[in-house]
Amino acid sequence: MFGVPELDEGVQKGLFYRYQDLAPQLVPLDYTSCPDVKVPYELIGSMPELKDNPFRQRIAQVFSDDGDGHMTLDNFLDMFSVMSEMAPRDLKAYYAFKIYDFNDDGYICAWDLEQTVTKLTRGELSAEEVSLVCEKVLGEADGDHDGRLSLEDFQNMILRAPDFLSTFHIRI
Amino acid sequence: MFSDDQLNEIIVEAENVPSRVVPEKTPVNSSFSMVSSISDIDVTDSQSFGNPDDKKSKQLLRFSTSLNESFLQTLHRSPGSVGIDTSHENIQGQKLIASLIPMTSRDRIKAIRSQPRTMEEKRNLKKMVDKEKSKQSHRILEFNCCAQCLNSVSQAYRRSKNSLSELLSYISLWQKTFKVIGGKFGTSVLSYFNFLRWLLKFNIFSFIVTFSFIIIPQFTVPEKNTLQFTGLEFFTGAGYFQDTVMYYGFYTNSTVQHGSSGAPYNMQLAYIFTIGACLIVCFFSLLFSMARYFRNNFINPHIYSRGITKLIFCWDFTVTHERAVKLKQKNLSTEIRENLSEIRQENVKLTLNQQLIHVLAHLAAWVVSTGVAIACCVAVYYLAENNSEFLKNHQNPGAVLLLPFLVSCINLATPRLYSLFRLVERYETPRREVYILLIRNIFLKISIIGILCYYWLNIVAQAGEECWETLIGQEIYRLLLMDFVFSLADSLLGEFLRRLIGMQFPTSLGLQEFDIARNVLELIYAQTLVWIGTFFCPLLPFIQMISLFIMFYVKNISLMMNFQPPSKAWRASQMMTFFIFLLFFPSFTGVLCTLAITIWRLKPSADCGPFRGLPFFIHSIYSWIDTLSKRPGYLWVVWIYQNLIGSVHFFFILTLIVLIITYLYWQITEGRKIMIRLLHEQIINEGKDKMFLIEKLAKLQDMEKRANTSSFTMERRDVEQTSPLHVREHNAAHDLRFRRSVQEENPKV
Tell me: the pLDDT tens digits for B525-536? Predict the structure, then answer.
């Protein structure tokens, strides 16, 4: 009913109610007039599925229209459709790439990797270890040796990580 | 799997939802959403054996990729620009639409769906394509009514399939529990519970089939049960239960017919065909699951097997519990540190002495483990053989439980003994350690089942006892029951005690982690017994269904109370592939062998069961074919039986064809591996070329700048300087062309 391919109707309805629950005063129950409503990032980030995820801010930014984290219903459904079990691997890899690309330049450079590792380890690793890790990752995954990961490098690497499909998945 | 037809319906319905008009100019950020997948996915993706639909959509993706890549490159050159050349985008959009129009609606939906665009854009794209298509179709003649009929039939079929799958997803068991488990423990522990649910589906299906086709007809011709009911029957399976639908011996061999006009129901044929149908469905379902897992998880053994990249990019998004996330982050840091230190230590070579010690340790461990397995089998066989005399001496009806008790003790103690070998042996990778442990455990369990089957089929079946099939059924029931009781005790008591002990000495032991391998092997063991036992005890799937149900809740509660999340990354998908393979290869094939021997070689008992009096079980089929051959309407069945199923030539030719196809696919795989390697080298070379050109360009620009500053005074020297520059540039381009031609030659080799 909302045009989301990977989710069936019951789940879409459930998602709509979840969206509505986040901001009942903002989101009308009647969507036939297609109101231009955006739920602010703070409410999205407080959802139980996302509130402890280290990448919740990036996820919201990637799926929102303007990159600021405020999501319309379409963005919301898009997000859960891509993060569902049924989304194809390429779609997931593409969005994962965007999530890990912190500076939005279309490549995962060393700075993006540092940000990723810091978020993943919550400051447990020293700065030297972090840069060592980034070096190793670039050494392993950078196919054309230009010092940063392009989308192709990332997808190539994902092909060899079959766990990716099951871990890049948010249950709703 | 959510089908494309459902997608079709949904997008069709989405047409009716008025959507906001998408502005023509899309901002820079969303331009990246137009980049699709890589174009060499056809080569590197191991799913390339897939159906033509995928190939078509990949071709489309490749097509739009090349368009969009050039688009993206223009963007990279001007990162600061806000607007885009809308006419350029429109041309490319129209090309995309033009390529989508000739596709069938299924392919179109697939292609649109796999585009990484927002939903608004996908909806608009579909609208535009449909508008263009309807413009074109005015010129096409109407379908003739045959095609229209077929169309409506297929649509009705698709709709019913949709509603059925929706219904199935509504009654999908335990969705919420899975979410909680995944949130706290991650996908690895979840894979065990998934496996349990999957086995439950097998059992539910077997139960429904046997219930409808064997048990219900038997209920309509009941025989009087004269035995006494005492409570002990639940444990021993004997006594009152002997004369119920639970066991083979109760079933009639007659043709059930109610009234003179009712259809005759041949119990013999029903029994053998029902069991056969259950097994065939299980076989194909296992085969397809295994094939699907292999295809999705095919690993090209590459540098990433021990790599750090997977740790970084495969963060488990399903973990949602706050404490679990913190713990996972801590564990990830530890693992990263270990990985870094491993990479540093990788280059340390062991001395000859140390290598020898390691080899000896491995050898000793293998000898001991095999010896223990053989000793256990001998013990089981010895006890089984002497069981009958033992039972005669001890009149206690509970004495029959001794053999199952011993088997369950072996199953409990020996895997833990195998885990202790870890202290002596040192493995290069933890993955190899897990695999070897699994192989040893499965060897033990399968040998025990094997020795028991040998005993049952060779001794019990030919001892001339009254109703040997029922006896075997009772044995299997007792084994399963004892195994279930031991698992319950282990989960409820053992793990609880372990947690108490762990909390008393907090520093040394700590909380335990869920041992996925051991638990999955227990499930495989129980399922093997159920498959063997269904022939002798048709109610066994029902019993296993109940026990799996209870096990789920018990394990869940124990998990929440006594365990901590796993500290090491566990390759869940690879492991699941291996488990399903184990379920297929030693387990299910062993079951098929056992049942084949039973049906073809053993003599049914003379007084009980549906096959009483026949020389072999298979004679029921032979006599059926004989009766059919006398009826003129069914001669085709007889023909199929004699020429396809009964004929050796047919199987020989079939095997030959399968071998040829396998060989061809193998050669294709090898060729593709070579192609991957060459393309990888080419990518590296292209990267080097790019760096070379960039350096060259920088140098030239430098020189030009210097030349320009001094050009006001010395123009003649400029002319002299630029010409060698041009020559150098020409040489560089020549080098590049030469290198490229060398690379292009390589794939042709």
Answer: 999 999 999 999
